[in-house]
Amino acid sequence: MQRKMFLKTLAAPALAAMALCAVTAHAQAPVEVPFYYPVAVGGPITKVIDGYAADFNKAHPQYRVVPIYAGTYQETIVKALTAHKSGKAPATSVLLSTDMFTLIDEDAIAPIDDFVKTDADRAWIKGFYPAFMANSQTGGKTWGVPFQRSTVVMYYNKEAFKEAGLDPHKAPQNWKELKEAAHKLTKKDASGNVTQYGIQIPSTGFAYWMLQTLTTPNDVLLANGAGTQVTFDHPKVIEALDFWVNLTKEGVHPKGVVEWGTTPKDFFEKKAAIIITTTGNLTNVKNNAKFDFGVAQIAGNLRKGSPTGGGNFYIFKKAPQEQQQAAFEFAKWITQPERAAQWSMDSGYVAVSQAAYDTPALKKYGQDFPPALVARDQLPVSVAEFSTHDNQRVTKVLNDAIQAALNGTKTSAQAMKDAQREADRILRSYK
């Protein structure tokens, strides 16, 4: 009897200790944070994102950010909204800044302001470039955190410029100079077939964005700030589309629809002397162009300027509260100046704050490789990327209209008037 009592006395503290260990282990199990990221294939970018997640997890052992590569931007928002509707929303996702109204309409995201508690948090929000916040804030609230952001820039082959008698150190500054340069840069073989186009602007995927690189310099916006009204049939919009269409008619730009994905390759292969595309292609061009190239701001007309573009972090409101908090901490951590600077160098995207450009690493990179600063220097004259309520449907209407004009099945005026009518119908319920 005494022996049993003795064993019981011994066992009680041991059991208590085991129970305490179990509770502690449970308390210390990291919060899993599903993170949808838009990339269709593996490669350098997935390695960089995986590295960021691992570094964050190491510095914050209470969390475990898990990147999930969800395809293109379009595929990622579909997957994120499907998960949201089924009650299994990711904690966070990088989605287009232009998806903001759609995500608000779906009641899918929490305002970032809900997590901002300290003076340091408030200073962090104020530190982003205002041009990027135009697509991150509406109705007095902040809904997205700028991450992989961009503007559109002009890449040009300096060797082709020299050959054509153009100054290789000076890109075309306005539409007149751009058209003249495109004519001089266009090359034909003995049979009269074009071997090098003077200029190439892609029209698949992001046709609306490329149109904005012409409407912005023509001093007209495609939508209001509330995302409830478009101006497709404005005379200045029609004039901008006509400028693009006329480049094809004059034979200095490829006819019909031009693929987004092959445009950089056409530049590398000297099939196009000037291309208009995202600064997000900068590292790609730097690594693959086997000739001296320049990067310049978009040519002006009535003014200078470009639309911004790219992706923001959003926090999904149906994710558990601790996951939402972790997502906020991760977005804050990854956009700190040193990391934003490194991300810009790794990817070619614009660093999202002046503080990032003030870091020694990005300062040196900008001195050694000045093209890295062009997109940033264009920000003061940049406008918000086209975005409305029911954004995917309205954008498709605009993309289809642009392609109809470029294919010659409609005039620019008719294409834009038809698109205006259809967009007004879609947006009626949001006014």
From TrEMBL:
Keywords: Signal, Transport. One of its GO terms (cellular component) is periplasmic space. SUPFAM superfamilies: Periplasmic binding protein-like II. It is found in: Periplasm. Coiled coil: none annotated. The keyword Signal applies. Its main location: periplasm. InterPro entries: Bact_solute-bd_prot1, SBP. Belongs to the bacterial solute-binding protein 1 family. PANTHER family: ARABINOSE-BINDING PROTEIN-RELATED (PTHR43649), SN-GLYCEROL-3-PHOSPHATE-BINDING PERIPLASMIC PROTEIN UGPB (PTHR43649:SF31). The complex is composed of two ATP-binding proteins (UgpC), two transmembrane proteins (UgpA and UgpE) and a solute-binding protein (UgpB). This is sn-glycerol-3-phosphate-binding periplasmic protein UgpB. The lineage of its organism: Bacteria, Pseudomonadati, Pseudomonadota, Betaproteobacteria, Burkholderiales.
